[in-house]
Design a protein that fits this description.
This protein has 70 residues and is mostly beta strands. It has a domain of 47 residues. The chain is 0% helix and 37% strand. The chain contains no helices and five strands. Strands 1-2-5-4-3 form a five-stranded antiparallel β-sheet, with no helix packed on it. β1 and β2 form a beta hairpin. The radius of gyration is 13 Å and the shape is globular. The chain starts with a strand and ends in a 19-residue tail after the last strand.
Amino acid sequence: MEEIKVYHDRTGNTLTIWFGNPEDEYVAEETGEEIVLMKDKAGRVIGLEKLNYKVSESDDVKFSFQSIAV
């Protein structure tokens, strides 16, 4: 089973999602929409980071995942 890693940094206001091995990151590319794509040496996207991701101090970040067949 594939593993997705999600990190929320409340201090840095970032939300980082890895669907590949973070150690394979070779280059990071900002899309211009406060999204950074992390890529491996082959150019495959293995993660992304949302910059300026803020939630109020009293709110928790909740996640829901759903798999679909394509």
